[in-house]
Amino acid sequence: VNIDKLTYAGNLESLSDISESNRYNFEHADICDSAEITRIFEQYQPDAVMHLAAESHVDRSITGPAAFIETNIVGTYVLLEVARKYWSALGEDKKNNFRFHHISTDEVYGDLPHPDEVENSVTLPLFTETTAYAPSSPYSASKASSDHLVRAWRRTYGLPTIVTNCSNNYGPYHFPEKLIPLVILNALEGKPLPIYGKGDQIRDWLYVEDHARALHMVVTEGKAGETYNIGGHNEKKNLDVVFTICDLLDEIVPKATSYREQITYVADRPGHDRRYAIDAGKISRELGWKPLETFESGIRKTVEWYLANTQWVNNVKSGAYQSWIEQNYEGRQ
Fold first, then answer.
1. Phi, psi (deg, nearest 5) at residue 233
2. pLDDT value at position 17?
3. Helices 75-88 and 138-157, packing angle to 10 deg
4. CA-to-CA distance for 277 and 167, rounded, in angstroms?
5. Lowest-confidence segment of 12-16, 145-149, 165-169, 274-278 by average pLDDT
6. 163 Rama class: left (phi>0) / alpha (psi -120 to 50) / beta
7. Residue 326, domain member (yes or no)
8. Domain for residue 147, yes or no?
9. Can you give the C-alpha Rg of the chain in angstroms?
10. Considering its fold, how many domains does the chain have in total?
């Protein structure tokens, strides 16, 4: 059962391959609607909940934080309460096997020392499951709040919850407000490739199919009450990510000048975190998960997917999307 409010980034076309399956059901609903979520639980009797519903774009959280408070905090509360009441009434076997899997972000941990700021960059720290929370944006603060709620429902009510915190995802079907699809599509359209500040912010990149495998492994094999960090072992500066995309496009769809010439530096995001990097050792040791894609293999697959799926791209790039891109980036020149 897929529950989605279908906000600006929601797109049923992304699931067209499975939409006719008798194992798939779609419910158009808001996770803040307790009555509707209760109906869905009663109708479908789930064995597990995988809570991925969230507002997730940091820039949008800066200009409009209310939606992030509502969906990420209030919505999580509603889901937890409906799940708790449903779980409490289950038979013993089903109750023991039930899981509430909350999917979160590494941004709740704040940021890490940047190699440009330390003498010995060989021993730079990584985020672990015990790293203290220090969110720095309205988005990450809302996700941190939801993480705390999930753990509180575990400790207070015994609800069998699991939390996963992942690094930056990329891959097919990524809504084009995010860095990698934005750069690919702007490059192809001859538009500027906006880089915040100097582009030296570091992120750990996780291919979406690797993340999906990890999530399935956690919800089926993970231990209730645990937290698992999921990362791709791919620390890259934002500027290097953009260089890689430009060089791939130069190779696959060359033009008279390099795509790198479209790079444009814009004013940095307020409070921009300098570095994220995940230690995924726990999920590797305990569940046997490891990423299968390197950044080089994953980014090539991603670029090729966008080149082959122009109709999907055209369908999701609505007028509202175009207006937001213009407001967010052109105002930073």
1. 60, 40
2. 92
3. 20
4. 7
5. 12-16
6. beta
7. no
8. yes
9. 20
10. 1
Indicate whether 188 belongs to any domain.
yes
Q: Residue 331: its pLDDT value, please?
A: 54
Catalytically annotated residues = 106-107, 139
pLDDT at 297: 98
Domain range holding 216? 2-321
Q: Tokens for 238? A: 């934002």
Q: Is 259 domain-assigned? A: yes
E strands, the chain, are 2-4, 26-28, 48-51, 99-105, 161-166, 168-170, 193-196, 202-207, 227-230, 235-237, 263-266
Query: Could you report the per-residue pLDDT of 153-202, keeping only the tens digit for each?
Result: 999 999 999 999 999 999 999 998 899 999 999 999 999 999 999 999 99
Q: What CATH code is carried by the domain that includes residue 152?
A: 3.40.50.720
One-letter identity of residue 185: L
Task: Please give the single-letter amino acid code of residue 217.
Answer: M
In a 13 Å sphere around the CA of 170, the CA atoms on its Cβ side amount to 31
- Measure CA of the first residue to CA of the last residue in the chain; give whole Å: 44
pLDDT score recorded for residue 317: 78
Q: Say whether pLDDT at 332 is over 60.
A: no
pLDDT of residue 172: 97
Q: Are 195 and 269 in contact (CB under 8 A)?
A: no
Q: Under a CB-based contact definition with an 8 Å cutoff, are residues 332 and 266 in contact?
A: yes
This prediction's pTM: 0.93
